[in-house]
Write a structure and sequence with these properties.
The protein has 225 residues and is an alpha/beta fold. 18% of the residues lie in helices and 37% in strands. The strands form three sheets. Strands 4, 5, 6, 7, 8 and 9 form a six-stranded mixed β-sheet that branches. Strands 10-15-14-11-12-13 form a six-stranded mixed β-sheet.
Length: 225
Protein backbone atom coordinates (compact mmCIF):
# COMPACT_ATOMS: atom_id res chain seq x y z
CA UNK A 1 0.00 0.00 0.00
CA UNK A 2 1.18 3.52 -0.79
CA UNK A 3 0.77 6.45 1.58
CA UNK A 4 0.94 10.14 0.73
CA UNK A 5 1.57 12.85 3.32
CA UNK A 6 0.70 16.33 2.04
CA UNK A 7 2.59 19.22 3.65
CA UNK A 8 1.49 22.04 1.31
CA UNK A 9 4.83 23.05 -0.18
CA UNK A 10 5.99 19.50 -0.73
CA UNK A 11 4.66 16.04 -1.26
CA UNK A 12 6.39 13.30 0.68
CA UNK A 13 5.80 9.88 -0.83
CA UNK A 14 6.44 6.81 1.28
CA UNK A 15 6.70 3.52 -0.56
CA UNK A 16 8.39 0.22 0.25
CA UNK A 17 10.39 1.77 3.07
CA UNK A 18 11.73 4.63 0.92
CA UNK A 19 10.72 8.27 0.88
CA UNK A 20 10.91 10.81 -1.92
CA UNK A 21 9.91 14.43 -2.12
CA UNK A 22 8.33 16.61 -4.79
CA UNK A 23 8.66 20.36 -4.24
CA UNK A 24 5.40 21.66 -5.68
CA UNK A 25 5.19 24.92 -7.65
CA UNK A 26 3.59 27.78 -5.73
CA UNK A 27 0.63 29.84 -6.89
CA UNK A 28 -1.17 32.75 -5.24
CA UNK A 29 -4.68 31.51 -5.98
CA UNK A 30 -6.28 28.52 -7.63
CA UNK A 31 -9.76 28.37 -9.10
CA UNK A 32 -9.76 24.60 -8.53
CA UNK A 33 -9.15 23.34 -5.00
CA UNK A 34 -10.89 19.97 -4.86
CA UNK A 35 -10.97 17.02 -7.26
CA UNK A 36 -12.56 13.63 -6.73
CA UNK A 37 -11.82 10.22 -8.24
CA UNK A 38 -8.10 10.74 -8.77
CA UNK A 39 -4.86 8.88 -9.29
CA UNK A 40 -1.41 10.44 -9.31
CA UNK A 41 1.89 10.55 -11.15
CA UNK A 42 5.11 12.09 -9.83
CA UNK A 43 7.99 13.76 -11.63
CA UNK A 44 10.87 13.88 -9.18
CA UNK A 45 13.95 16.06 -9.35
CA UNK A 46 16.68 13.45 -9.04
CA UNK A 47 20.31 14.44 -9.49
CA UNK A 48 21.36 10.79 -9.62
CA UNK A 49 19.48 10.30 -12.89
CA UNK A 50 21.17 11.12 -16.21
CA UNK A 51 18.61 13.81 -17.06
CA UNK A 52 17.86 14.69 -13.39
CA UNK A 53 14.24 13.57 -13.67
CA UNK A 54 12.40 10.47 -12.53
CA UNK A 55 8.81 9.59 -13.46
CA UNK A 56 6.67 7.43 -11.20
CA UNK A 57 3.33 6.52 -12.79
CA UNK A 58 2.70 3.11 -11.21
CA UNK A 59 -0.61 4.04 -9.62
CA UNK A 60 -2.22 5.84 -12.57
CA UNK A 61 -5.66 4.56 -13.53
CA UNK A 62 -6.81 5.61 -17.00
CA UNK A 63 -10.47 6.10 -16.02
CA UNK A 64 -9.69 8.60 -13.23
CA UNK A 65 -8.75 12.26 -13.08
CA UNK A 66 -4.96 12.46 -13.13
CA UNK A 67 -3.00 14.61 -10.71
CA UNK A 68 0.49 15.17 -12.09
CA UNK A 69 2.88 16.30 -9.36
CA UNK A 70 5.93 17.98 -10.89
CA UNK A 71 8.93 19.21 -8.94
CA UNK A 72 9.23 22.97 -9.45
CA UNK A 73 13.03 22.74 -9.92
CA UNK A 74 12.73 20.82 -13.19
CA UNK A 75 12.86 22.55 -16.57
CA UNK A 76 10.34 22.27 -19.37
CA UNK A 77 12.96 20.47 -21.45
CA UNK A 78 12.95 17.75 -18.80
CA UNK A 79 9.23 17.77 -18.02
CA UNK A 80 7.28 18.18 -21.27
CA UNK A 81 8.41 14.94 -22.97
CA UNK A 82 7.21 13.06 -19.87
CA UNK A 83 3.90 14.93 -19.91
CA UNK A 84 3.38 14.13 -23.59
CA UNK A 85 4.12 10.49 -22.80
CA UNK A 86 1.45 10.46 -20.07
CA UNK A 87 -1.08 12.17 -22.32
CA UNK A 88 -0.51 9.61 -25.06
CA UNK A 89 -0.79 6.69 -22.64
CA UNK A 90 -4.18 7.93 -21.46
CA UNK A 91 -5.44 8.65 -24.96
CA UNK A 92 -4.44 5.20 -26.20
CA UNK A 93 -5.81 3.31 -23.23
CA UNK A 94 -8.51 0.73 -23.98
CA UNK A 95 -10.30 1.76 -20.79
CA UNK A 96 -11.02 5.47 -21.02
CA UNK A 97 -13.36 7.89 -19.33
CA UNK A 98 -14.09 10.83 -21.63
CA UNK A 99 -14.98 12.94 -18.59
CA UNK A 100 -11.68 12.31 -16.81
CA UNK A 101 -9.28 15.28 -16.82
CA UNK A 102 -5.60 16.01 -16.16
CA UNK A 103 -4.29 18.51 -13.60
CA UNK A 104 -1.01 19.84 -12.31
CA UNK A 105 -0.84 19.91 -8.51
CA UNK A 106 0.32 23.17 -6.92
CA UNK A 107 0.79 24.72 -3.49
CA UNK A 108 -1.86 27.44 -3.14
CA UNK A 109 -0.16 29.79 -0.68
CA UNK A 110 -3.29 31.96 -0.25
CA UNK A 111 -5.23 29.00 1.16
CA UNK A 112 -2.30 27.03 2.56
CA UNK A 113 -3.65 24.06 0.70
CA UNK A 114 -3.37 22.33 -2.63
CA UNK A 115 -4.61 23.92 -5.84
CA UNK A 116 -4.89 22.47 -9.32
CA UNK A 117 -4.38 23.70 -12.89
CA UNK A 118 -6.07 21.75 -15.66
CA UNK A 119 -4.10 20.83 -18.78
CA UNK A 120 -6.40 18.19 -20.29
CA UNK A 121 -6.69 19.80 -23.71
CA UNK A 122 -3.23 21.32 -23.94
CA UNK A 123 -1.29 20.15 -27.01
CA UNK A 124 2.46 20.46 -26.56
CA UNK A 125 4.54 21.17 -29.67
CA UNK A 126 8.27 20.76 -29.16
CA UNK A 127 10.53 22.72 -31.52
CA UNK A 128 11.95 21.68 -33.94
CA UNK A 129 8.50 20.47 -34.91
CA UNK A 130 7.77 16.87 -35.78
CA UNK A 131 5.14 18.24 -38.11
CA UNK A 132 4.30 21.50 -39.84
CA UNK A 133 3.93 24.30 -37.26
CA UNK A 134 0.46 25.86 -36.88
CA UNK A 135 -0.29 28.41 -39.61
CA UNK A 136 -1.55 30.86 -37.00
CA UNK A 137 1.99 31.13 -35.66
CA UNK A 138 2.85 33.29 -38.65
CA UNK A 139 -0.32 35.36 -38.97
CA UNK A 140 -1.39 35.97 -35.40
CA UNK A 141 -0.20 37.58 -32.18
CA UNK A 142 2.17 35.39 -30.18
CA UNK A 143 3.56 35.68 -26.66
CA UNK A 144 7.01 34.22 -26.06
CA UNK A 145 7.70 33.48 -22.39
CA UNK A 146 11.47 33.17 -22.36
CA UNK A 147 12.10 34.03 -18.72
CA UNK A 148 10.80 36.25 -15.93
CA UNK A 149 12.97 39.01 -17.40
CA UNK A 150 12.03 38.50 -21.05
CA UNK A 151 8.44 38.16 -22.27
CA UNK A 152 8.02 39.15 -25.90
CA UNK A 153 4.83 39.99 -27.74
CA UNK A 154 5.20 39.23 -31.43
CA UNK A 155 2.97 41.16 -33.82
CA UNK A 156 0.67 39.66 -36.44
CA UNK A 157 3.48 40.07 -38.99
CA UNK A 158 5.05 36.96 -37.47
CA UNK A 159 8.56 36.46 -36.17
CA UNK A 160 9.83 39.24 -38.44
CA UNK A 161 7.20 41.68 -37.25
CA UNK A 162 7.18 44.20 -34.45
CA UNK A 163 8.46 43.01 -31.08
CA UNK A 164 7.64 44.30 -27.63
CA UNK A 165 9.62 42.85 -24.70
CA UNK A 166 8.78 43.19 -21.01
CA UNK A 167 9.83 41.74 -17.71
CA UNK A 168 7.23 39.74 -15.81
CA UNK A 169 6.20 42.57 -13.47
CA UNK A 170 5.55 45.03 -16.31
CA UNK A 171 3.80 42.44 -18.46
CA UNK A 172 1.44 41.31 -15.70
CA UNK A 173 0.63 44.90 -14.69
CA UNK A 174 0.06 46.26 -18.20
CA UNK A 175 -1.57 43.40 -20.09
CA UNK A 176 -4.93 45.23 -20.17
CA UNK A 177 -3.25 47.94 -22.27
CA UNK A 178 -2.10 45.57 -25.01
CA UNK A 179 -5.45 45.23 -26.78
CA UNK A 180 -5.38 41.43 -26.72
CA UNK A 181 -9.18 41.29 -26.70
CA UNK A 182 -9.18 42.76 -30.23
CA UNK A 183 -7.41 39.72 -31.65
CA UNK A 184 -9.74 37.67 -33.84
CA UNK A 185 -7.58 34.53 -33.60
CA UNK A 186 -6.34 32.71 -30.49
CA UNK A 187 -3.03 34.05 -29.21
CA UNK A 188 -0.18 31.63 -29.79
CA UNK A 189 1.90 30.76 -26.74
CA UNK A 190 5.62 29.94 -26.78
CA UNK A 191 7.60 28.77 -23.75
CA UNK A 192 11.37 28.51 -23.56
CA UNK A 193 12.52 24.95 -22.86
CA UNK A 194 14.86 26.19 -20.12
CA UNK A 195 12.04 27.67 -18.03
CA UNK A 196 11.77 26.19 -14.57
CA UNK A 197 8.45 24.47 -13.99
CA UNK A 198 7.74 27.01 -11.23
CA UNK A 199 7.94 29.88 -13.74
CA UNK A 200 5.88 27.93 -16.27
CA UNK A 201 3.10 27.51 -13.70
CA UNK A 202 3.29 31.22 -12.83
CA UNK A 203 2.70 32.06 -16.49
CA UNK A 204 -0.02 29.40 -16.82
CA UNK A 205 -2.01 30.93 -13.98
CA UNK A 206 -1.83 34.31 -15.70
CA UNK A 207 -2.96 32.83 -19.02
CA UNK A 208 -5.97 31.34 -17.26
CA UNK A 209 -6.75 34.83 -15.96
CA UNK A 210 -6.57 36.17 -19.53
CA UNK A 211 -9.03 33.50 -20.65
CA UNK A 212 -11.45 34.53 -17.92
CA UNK A 213 -11.22 38.05 -19.38
CA UNK A 214 -12.51 36.64 -22.69
CA UNK A 215 -9.11 36.66 -24.35
CA UNK A 216 -8.72 33.69 -26.67
CA UNK A 217 -5.59 31.62 -26.00
CA UNK A 218 -4.46 28.75 -28.23
CA UNK A 219 -4.56 25.30 -26.63
CA UNK A 220 -1.26 24.53 -28.40
CA UNK A 221 1.81 25.39 -26.37
CA UNK A 222 5.08 25.59 -28.29
CA UNK A 223 8.23 24.61 -26.40
CA UNK A 224 11.16 26.36 -28.05
CA UNK A 225 14.93 26.32 -27.63
Amino acid sequence: MRYILILYASLFIFSCGKDKMVQLPEINHSEISEINDVSAAYLFYNETEVDSIELNRKNLISTTNWLVNVDKRLTLKQVIPKIKFLQEKKQKSEHKNENAKNYFTCNDISKKDLGFIEFTNVVYKIYPFDEKPPDSLYINISINFKSLESITIISSDGFCGNLLTFNWKDFSNKFNDFGFDKSTNPIDIIFDENLLFQDYITFKVFLEKMKRNNISISNEEIISN
